[in-house]
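retry 2 of 3: previous attempt timed out while embedding adenosine-5'-triphosphate. Reduced batch size to 1 and resubmitted. Inputs unchanged:
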Amino acid sequence: MTALIETRAVSRHFISSSGPFGAGKLLMAVADVSIALAAGETLGIAGETGCGKSTLARIMMGLIPPSSGQVLYRGTPLNEMSKAGRSDFRKSVQMVFQDPFSSLNPRMRIGDIIGEPFVIHGIASGTALKERVSDLILQVGLQPELANRFPHEFSGGQRQRIGIARALASGPQVLIADEPVSALDLSIQAQIINLLMELKEGHGLALAFIAHDLSVVRHVSDRIAIMYLGRIVELGSRDEVFSSCRHPYTEALISAIPKVHPSAKTGRIVLAGDVPSPLEIPTGCPFRSRCRYARELCRHERPTLEEKSPGHFAACHFSNEIFS
Ligand SMILES: Nc1ncnc2c1ncn2[C@@H]1O[C@H](COP(=O)(O)OP(=O)(O)OP(=O)(O)O)[C@@H](O)[C@H]1O
Ligand code: SF4
Ligand SMILES: [Mg+2]
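retry 2 succeeded.
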């Protein structure tokens, strides 16, 4: 089956403009990422801050080009698409952002914000437009009468609902949700996650769900990709990743999730130090400076992402031995 969105060996660097390591250095934000999102699936993408999640999301959306590698939509590379193909891509792949306030134009009424994609893509106008907007407002759990209000009149959770309604307006097949709940109060997070999952089911969407928090990703995902310093270090089905992870970084992330039962053994693995700067990525295995299993080989040779069992990949020289 052809993936809806696929990245092939995608990398993206930036030239640093400032910082403790000096200006003009090459910063590898995303390195050699190959990943595919199938129709109807939820792919969770998790990793610590700065590991390249948002950059990967922007590349998948076609918002920034990769420095190397390719992004394909339904098997066609974005840079080889016809005008019509590109327009279909822009309608079919939508993003939900982390900060629902800065992503909504403060000077527009929410009815116009949600209705804009209908106008841009020539989908509806006049009375039909009003009806479509009302329907979307209802679908995200708000009252259609609120269409005349401005974003500042809503709470964070309501603004995220508006952002989701806008993302749905063009009738997408893919939603890329970049930390859609991390700016929200804990009590609101579950409501928004539930809404996203309901809409995903109702509209048959594929969802890429990005989060720092592995417990949130666990809740929603069919498959999970774990990123570290721009690379995918583990990729597999949710159940396999949680029940038999194959990378020491994933092992540490899972061990840090608070246990539901107080009697459960905590066994938290404390990672040494901070994530290295993406300007100073260690030689060999990027994780070696924090890995409790690191050996000499890890210093010299970078492990590639290898299939350890069907559909379950990890980038670690000693995965088979450590997780036997
Ligand atoms: N436009 C840019 N110019 C320079 N560096 C950038 C740019 N965008 C991202 N970066 C750098 O690339 C790296 C990856 O950033 P990115 O925002 O993709 O990470 P992230 O995983 O989304 O982090 P967070 O969890 O904090 O959102 C970081 O070191 C970041 O500073
Ligand atoms: S390759 Fe070495 S340093 Fe990297 S995760 Fe595996 S054991 Fe740790
Ligand atoms: Mg981000």
